[in-house]
């Protein structure tokens, strides 16, 4: 059985080798996954590639940012219709 973290580890290591990098940086919500941190570090160590990642409390997911933005919109009584479609790059403010 293949876990999602196995795919991330494999693709990350493959990309590091392809681009001949000596450093890997994990960031965002995925960087809070201890298994992912450990597995990438183990494989990278074998290839003399350094791995960097922030402290767990700094590894926030985009959901926290979206929830915060939604909270302030709600406080301003700005609401959307229930038929609103998902948009990956929807601006928070319209100019």
From TrEMBL:
Pfam families: TsaD
Domain Gcp-like positions: 6-67
Alphabetical list of SUPFAM superfamilies matching this protein: Actin-like ATPase domain
Protein name (database record): Gcp-like domain-containing protein
Source organism (scientific name): marine sediment metagenome
